[in-house]
Amino acid sequence: MNAIADKFGVSESTVHVAIRRVLYFPLSISEREIRWPNDEDAALNKRAFRALGRCDGVEAGLPDVIGDIDRCHVRITRPTECEGDYYNRQTFHSIILQAVCDADMVFTDAFVGFPGRAHDARVLEESFLFEETALRFGGGYLLGDAAYPLLLWLLPPYRHVTSSWQPWMSKFNHVHSRQRFVVETAFGLLKGRFRRVDKIDVNSIPQAVEIVMAACVLHNLARRHADIFEDSDIANSDLGIFSSEPVDVDHKPT
């Protein structure tokens, strides 16, 4: 914030006012732009996700997948209240963005603001997505990584259990990974396009949440309007830590 004020020769209060004005528009259309797929869109997603699972020896991927779910840390400045809650296991202060995306890397659900130290399962259980599963899932489900629980509407990969591991589990995990990479790429696009999401240097947690949500809205607008974005920008960006819980998800038992 200080750097922006110095660069443009204005006061910090002026910068705050400008940020509020810029945030107003994307936040005002967030419910329209970050929306759950209707039946037609869900059917398209199922076909697209299944095609992503094709690989050697596998004709098609997992059926009926309507989205990928994951979460990433958004680095913030050290908060003045409840500082320990925001200090995550990767040793920096953050808030968590949990998001679902479709096969085109468009966010269909976004839940932002939990302190970085919160467990993944708690973030999921406290989200609107968890509360509204009966309304959202009909004949479809999400793919998540091994940090997520197995639910009727959420399918993680197999964890390592050496004594009972079977070869087909490795193949399942490989196909699962091919179909689940979409959300990781979406986070990469988000952080590569909007460098502000790499670190938000505001003192207000609510404002940090608004900045992340606004970036998600603008990301969706860009995806839907086929805005060109170079892959090299993703490679050069700090994508952050996708999982807040380290989990062993290799395809072979150790």
From TrEMBL:
Cofactors (names): a divalent metal cation
Family: Belongs to the HARBI1 family.
Metal-binding recorded as keyword: yes
Superkingdom of this protein's organism: Eukaryota
Keyword annotations from UniProtKB, A to Z: Hydrolase, Metal-binding, Nuclease, Nucleus
PANTHER family membership: GH03217P-RELATED (PTHR22930:SF85), PTHR22930
Pfam short name (any one): DDE_Tnp_4
GO cellular component: nucleus
Location of the protein in the cell: Nucleus
Official protein name in the record: DDE Tnp4 domain-containing protein
Keyword Transferase: no
InterPro entries: HARBI1-like (IPR045249), HARBI1_dom (IPR027806)
Main location: nucleus
Residues in DDE Tnp4 domain copies: 69-220
GO molecular function: hydrolase activity; metal ion binding; nuclease activity
